[in-house]
Specification:
Elements: H1 2-30, H2 40-62, H3 68-77, E1 87-94, E2 97-104, E3 112-118, H4 132-142, E4 144-149, H5 161-175, E5 182-192, H6 194-205, E6 217-221, H7 233-237, H8 246-257, H9 264-268, H10 275-285, H11 309-315, H12 330-333, E7 338-346, H13 350-362, E8 367-376, H14 391-405
Parallel strand pairs: 3-4, 3-5, 5-6, 6-7, 7-8
Antiparallel strand pairs: 1-2, 2-4
Helix pairs in contact: 1-2, 2-3, 5-6
Length: 408
């Protein structure tokens, strides 16, 4: 029996070591590290760990042990949460939607500012526990009441669960602000990555709702704002830069939207876009709308590729404003609250933020833009990781806190 256990341990050890070697090899063969990035060795180490986890999840999925989303969910639920003595944290449910409320313990002579936060992760990664520290810090540093929305996601929930969960949780909170001591004239929608896309979309959806308090501002941190033009310069320049590579972006998108991976090339090339639709959207999604310094790329492919009707029928929902808030009609855009936009130079989604900035400004919406030259996608998550933090992480956190505190 002892011999069997030793053999089993040796096999498992070899397996996990092999996965680790694979992760390191994949990193060095498929990853670009930005030249402007501080601490490149730390960046490489963290990305190797990330690939290791994703690879394990993919293996478990292929052998039928559990799906990749379920494996990531297990890891999220295993995270240790550190209590903050300055905050009261309450887990609630708004119907079927889990939410987490962060309230400063110190008494306040007047209602506090409110923040509704949507985490990123493309419906594959991310959880209330994973974002607990970030949300707690935002609530404490801005002296605000923060509601983090734990929208339902993969593997049990697909399109369009995230949108409806975020919308319903926001409406419920907005209707009960007095209960939580929140000033109804100072509510901010905030999110990062796909969560920032949700914040932009909810801001648009709530325009004209006279039965609800008006949103005061939207804070969009390296937002995902469109799933139509995958040939923007940042998609070429940063397609191999962690922590959001083109491969991971496509994986999250296709799994959530239930699109077969055989349509990948047609979607990336734009062949799924009908000519009449591109004629309408081009004025908002074309590279021509970017500042000149962000257009640097060796070659700009013809976009969109010749129309493929079969690809369109498979993926036409990508063209909806519900998945691409960047193409919402001008009438809605003009009524949006002021925005704080964070973009990172080394981010595949950089140009989404730049295009949305132009759309908002063109319609008279005040925009504060914060661009991080050494930033990368997901960098905010490392702001409090001490040894594993980056200067850009702290810069983004401080900028977001400063902006929210300025909302009077």
């Amino acid at each position: 029996m002892v011999v069997l256990w030793l053999v089993l341990l040796a096999v498992l050890g070899t397996f996990f070591l092999g996965v680790a070697v694979w992760a390191v090899c994949e990193h060095f063969l498929t990853t670009d590290v930005p030249s402007a990035l501080r601490h490149p060795a730390k960046f490489r180490f963290l990305h190797c760990i990330f690939i290791y986890v994703i690879t394990l999840g993919n293996i478990f999925e292929k052998i039928g042990a559990c799906s990749l989303p379920r494996f990531l969910q297990f890891l999220h639920n295993s995270m240790r949460i550190k209590e903050d003595p300055a905050l009261v944290v309450t887990n609630l449910r708004f119907g079927t939607i889990p939410v987490r409320l962060f309230q400063p313990k110190a008494p306040s002579p007047s209602p506090r500012r409110g923040i509704i936060f949507f985490h990123g992760g493309g419906a594959l990664i991310g959880s209330l526990d994973m974002y607990h520290s970030l949300c707690g810090s935002l609530a404490r540093e801005t002296d605000s009441v923060l509601l983090a929305v734990g929208y339902r996601k993969l593997p049990d929930h697909h399109y369009s669960t995230v949108y409806h969960d975020c919308l319903n949780a926001s409406i419920h909170f907005l209707k009960t602000l007095e209960t939580y001591g929140v000033d109804s004239s100072r509510v901010v929608l905030c999110g990062d990555s796909s969560g920032a896309g949700a914040a932009a979309l909810i801001s648009q959806t709530l325009v004209g709702r006279l039965d609800l308090p008006q949103i005061r501002a939207q804070v969009l941190i390296y937002p995902l704002l469109q799933l139509i033009n995958f040939q923007l310069p940042s998609f070429h320049q940063n397609s191999r830069i962690p922590f959001l590579t083109q491969k991971l972006l496509i994986t999250c998108m296709f799994k959530y939207l239930l699109i077969d991976f055989s349509w990948r090339d047609a979607i990336v090339s734009g062949a799924f876009i009908p000519p009449e639709v591109w004629k309408k959207y081009r004025k908002w999604l074309s590279t021509d709308n970017l500042p000149n310094r962000f257009k640097k790329t060796s070659c700009q492919p013809v976009f969109p590729a010749p129309f493929n009707e079969a690809a369109y029928l498979e993926s036409e929902h990508l063209l909806d404003a519900e998945n691409s808030p960047l193409v919402r009609d001008d009438e809605i855009i003009a009524q949006l609250p002021e925005a704080f936009l964070v973009s990172c130079e080394n981010d595949i989604l950089r140009d989404d933020a730049l295009l949305y900035k132009k759309r908002l400004e063109d319609r008279g919406v005040p925009v504060t833009w914060y661009h991080v030259e050494d930033g990368f996608h997901g960098s905010l998550m490392f702001f409090d990781k001490k040894l594993f933090s980056f200067p850009c992480s702290l810069k983004i956190m401080n900028a977001v806190v400063s902006y929210i505190k300025s909302i009077l």
